[in-house]
Amino acid sequence: MSTDKKTLVVYFSHSGNTRAIANRMHELAGGDIFELQPADPYPPEYNAAVQKAKEELSADYKPKLKAKPGSLAAYDLIFVGSPNWWGTIAGPVRTFLADYDLAGKTVAPFITHEGSGLGNSVSDISRRCPKATIAEGLAVRGSVVRSAGDGVSEWLRRIKASR
Questions:
Q1: Taking a C-beta distance cutoff of 8 angstroms, is the pair 65, 92 a contact?
Q2: Within a 13 Å sphere around the CA of 101, how many CA atoms are in the beta-carbon half?
Q3: Contact 50, 87 (CB under 8 A)
Q4: Are 33 and 9 in contact (CB under 8 A)?
Q5: What is the full DSSP assignment across 35-89?
Q6: Residue range 106-146, pLDDT digits in tens
Q7: Rounded to two decimals, what is the model's pTM?
Q8: pLDDT above 60 (res 156)
Q9: First and final CA of the chain: distance in angstroms?
C-alpha cells in the first residue's frame, strides 16, 4: 500500500475506545473518517448492550444506521473498526459491510477488546468482503487505548499505511 492511496477510517464505538483508536489512526494515516451510529442506540449500560449485541449476532441482524458514508469509489484503503462483541464485529459494522461492495479495496480491520483479541473479526470481515484484500488486523485492549499510539503507528508501518 502506498501512502498516496485515498483512505477512509470507518468505525463503530460504544464506549469510546474504538473511537479513540480511529481518531489516532486518522491522525497518522490521513484520509477521511466516519463513525457508524445505529438508528436505535445500544443501551449505555454494558451488560444490557452486550445482551442486545448477542441477540443481534444470533439473528445476523444488521441494525439500521443513522447515516452512511457516501460513495466509496474514491477510496483505496478502508480501515474498519469495531469493538469485539461476542468474538466478532458489532452489528453496525455488519450493516456497513453488507451495504457496501468493497471489491478491489484493501480493508484493514482494527478491534478493541478486553481480553478476546481479534476473535473471529478478521475472518468474518473476509467472509463478508470476498473480493477485497484484507490486511493484518490490529487488536487493542480497551484498558490501554489511551497509550496505544505507538502500537497503532507500528501497525500502520507494517501494513504500509502511514503517511
A1: yes
A2: 4
A3: no
A4: yes
A5: E--BSSPPPSSHHHHHHHHHHHHHTT--PPBS------TT-SEEEEEEE-BTTB-
A6: 999 999 999 999 999 999 999 999 999 999 999 999 999 99
A7: 0.94
A8: yes
A9: 11
| Per-residue cell: 66 | 443513522
Model confidence at 4, pLDDT cuts 50, 70, 90, reads low
Planar angle of CA 144, 58, 35, nearest 5 degrees? 45
Distance CA 30, CA 24 (A): 10
> 121-128 and 91-99 helices cross at what angle (nearest 10)?
20
DSSP string computed for 123-159? HHHHHH-TTSEEPPPEEEEGGGGGG-HHHHHHHHHHT
Q: CATH for 7-158?
A: 3.40.50.360
Residue whose entry in the numeric block shows the C-alpha cell 478491489: 104
